[in-house]
Automatic annotation (TrEMBL):
Gene3D superfamilies in alphabetical order: Low-density Lipoprotein Receptor (4.10.400.10), Spermadhesin, CUB domain (2.60.120.290)
InterPro entries documented for this protein: LDL_receptor-like_sf (IPR036055), LDrepeatLR_classA_rpt (IPR002172), LRAD2/Mig-13-like (IPR042333), Sperma_CUB_dom_sf (IPR035914)
Name of protein: CUB domain-containing protein
Keyword Ribonucleoprotein listed: no
Presence of the UniProt keyword Thylakoid in the record: no
Highest taxon of source: Eukaryota
Signal peptide location: 1-20
Keywords recorded for this protein, A-Z: Disulfide bond, Signal
Disulphide bonds in the chain: 180-198
Amino acid sequence: MWFYFYTLFILHINVKYVNTNENEFHLFMDNQTLCNHGIIDLKNISTWKIYSHIYYHDRYMYFPDSHCSLTIRTNKRIWMSIEYFQSNSSSSFPRCTEAKYAGNDDRLQIIDGYKNGSILRIICGKDTDKRFDRTPLILKSSIFTLDWQTKSQSYGFKLKFVTYDLSIDGKCLNSSQFHCNNRRCIDRSLICLHEDYCGDNSQKSSLEAINQCPSKYCQSKASIQLLGCTSTWIYMRIDSTQDLLA
């Protein structure tokens, strides 16, 4: 009986507080109904983005003196990239990552597993700082926690998460996956979104990706010559290209 209500609680969170945009899920860490309550189950979701606050795209600042902790569960490996980060820290990066500043700075902690797990990375300061660590992070497990606290105001952050499997003997085990050069197998639906979901940009130079979604990759004469776009697409989309037709 308790398991039944627990499952309903997780599904309720997913449906009501996760916004969708085409192939992506968007989560916002200023939604106090979502924060600090249960587990967000994102199994079978290929990619999602997490923002500091719901008005991130409008360039409004996030509110001070707030705290949000999200625990997310998937069923695959995960890698994460920092697409934008700007917090108002009293100390500059990397000093703001030190424990003694924990109660005074705006900071995001990425934690392995649940909230009491080991801290994988502390993100604070501004990503324009030359010392800012923008290295993509490979999460150690399929459960992780984001802990975001604010003391003042700034423009916040945008994080991208992608789930993947590892190929075996150079092949993905699932035909619905795309094989990246770095051995990651991502959902095939992602290769037409014109972002780096592999983590090494290999989808953007793949003939398989070009054939599946040519209008995303073949947009100039230069791209035709470099990537080998199909002659059918060239004829339909580009004028005066008879010399390029097969």
